[in-house]
Write a structure and sequence with these properties.
The chain has 296 residues and is mainly α. The protein folds into two domains: 208 residues, Cation efflux protein transmembrane domain (Alpha-lytic protease prodomain-like, Up-down Bundle), CATH 1.20.1510.10; 79 residues, Cation efflux protein, cytoplasmic domain (Alpha-Beta Plaits), CATH 3.30.70. It contains eight helices and three strands, in the order αααααααββαβ. Strands 1-2-3 form a three-stranded mixed β-sheet. α8 links the parallel β2 and β3. α1 runs antiparallel to α4, α2 runs antiparallel to α3 and α5 runs antiparallel to α6. The longest helix is centred in the first third of the chain and has 32 residues. The two termini are 40 Å apart.
């Protein structure tokens, strides 16, 4: 049922991921060219970051394609976890970026080799980068929220970070223009701190999903929905797990023991339909029990 409802979602998610790949290739090329010609560590660190962005964007694109595969006999809950795994891999790539930036930044500050060439292209590539990253991050965030895609959300957070890191590099270039050349290396270290912060956020969220941590907001929403159904006398053992953009919910409900099997089933159907109406992309399974206090 889930798969039949999300053909449009799959197309939009794949298109967003593919556009992100194209943007990553473009930014990586221009940053490396300008970084090498000017000797700016800030821009070179951004170039490496963009190179890893390209890898991350490719991982996201592949993850979105794989996660759209329907459930089969080996994967009863579908392939949505691929998106969560993709987000975790992006976290690891970001940490690799941090390690290189911190190493190079400290080495240049310690050795004093901080001279760089600042010209029109130095500023142009950073400003272009900010514009491109803002555009793709906004688009990815929109699609991620629309379809609850953690892979695209990770990409959006990733590129939102790029905007701030590019702004820091821009400050470093201005400092170098004012003969404070260490500003570029200091800016690179600040970039690393920003990336570390976003890595922590991405990593924690993806690990929670992979370990099937129950989203408390969804559980509370389910409770409110079921409490409003008068035919349910009691409910318990709510279990919620996520798999990529999909949500799987299980719960036990108690009904009047005098109801026929057909009537009890109708109550179960009512519970499931009301939950599905208010929580998108979810599958609900209810177990029916007779209310013991009403047996006599």
């Amino acid at each position: 049922m889930i798969n039949s409802q999300h053909n449009t979602a799959d197309i939009e998610k794949k298109r967003a991921a593919l556009l992100s790949v194209g943007a990553a290739i473009f930014l990586t090329l221009i940053k490396f060219i300008v970084g090498i010609t000017t000797g700016s560590l800030g821009i070179l660190s951004e170039a490496l970051h963009s190179c890893l962005d390209f890898i991350a964007a490719m991982i996201t694109f592949l993850a979105v394609r794989l996660s759209s595969k329907p459930a089969d006999t080996s994967h009863n809950y579908g392939h949505g976890k691929v998106e969560n795994l993709s987000a975790l891999l992006q976290t690891m790539l970001l940490l690799v970026t941090c390690a290189w930036i911190i190493y190079e930044g400290l080495k240049r500050i310690i050795t004093g080799h901080t001279d760089i060439e600042v010209n029109f292209w130095s500023f142009a590539v950073v400003i272009i980068s900010i514009f491109v990253d803002y555009t793709r991050a906004s688009h990815l965030k929109k699609i991620a929220r629309k379809y609850n895609s953690q892979a695209l959300e990770a990409d959006a957070l990733h590129f939102s970070t790029d905007i701030f890191s590019s702004l820091v590099v821009l400050v470093g270039l201005i400092g170098a223009l004012l003969n404070f050349h260490s500003a570029d290396s200091i800016a690179a270290l600040i970039v690393a701190l920003i990336v570390l912060w976003i890595s922590f956020r991405l990593g924690r969220k993806s690990i929670d999903a992979l370990l099937d941590k129950s989203p408390s907001d969804i559980e509370q929403k389910v409770r409110k929905i079921v409490e409003s159904i008068t035919e349910v006398t009691f409910f318990h053992d709510i279990k919620v797990r996520t798999s990529g953009p999909y949500i799987f919910i299980e719960l036990n409900i108690h009904v009047d023991p005098k109801l026929t099997i057909f009537e009890a089933h109708e109550v179960s159907e009512l519970v499931e339909s009301k939950i599905k109406a208010q929580i998108e992309r979810c599958e609900v399974h209810t177990h029916i029990e007779p209310e013991p206090n009403m047996l006599n």
